[in-house]
Amino acid sequence: MSSFGRALGVLRAGTGLLRSGPGRITSRKASGGPHIEPQYRQYPQLTKKQKFDSELISGVMWFWILWHCWHDPDAVLGHFPWPDASQWTDEELGIPLDEEE
Q: Kindly report the CA angle at 97 between 94 and 100, in degrees rounded to 5?
């Protein structure tokens, strides 16, 4: 019965569109602010707000990275004890044997 209800709803919407005829097509415009025209092979012209926003976002990013490196170094360095390199043998390090004559 639910498929019948759906079909009926679609038919109602279709007949409503056919009765009203084609609607008025509106064109949407971007924000009312100034638009920057694209320029071939030239650097983009940044507004002061864009520069401030980019520096703010990059500052927050570096703060987040350095804060977590300082307060949670295991996230960067790993959750394991560092191996003691003085206990490794020459064979494990790939050092050839010293042949004495």
A: 165
Question: Is residue 45 a contact partner of residue 36, using CB atoms and an 8 Å limit?
Answer: yes
Q: CA 96 → CA 16, 36, 51, 85, distances in Å?
A: 88, 66, 57, 17
pLDDT tens column, 14-31? 777 667 666 665 665 666
Please say whether the beta carbons of 36 and 44 come within 8 A.
yes
Written as six digits, the tokens of 2 are: 């639910």
Predicted confidence (pLDDT) per residue in 22-56, tens digit: 666 566 566 666 666 767 888 878 899 999 999 99
> CA-CA-CA-CA torsion for 29, 36, 38, 57, nearest 10 degrees?
-100
- Give which of 95, 92, 96, 72 is closest to 83, Cα–Cα: 92
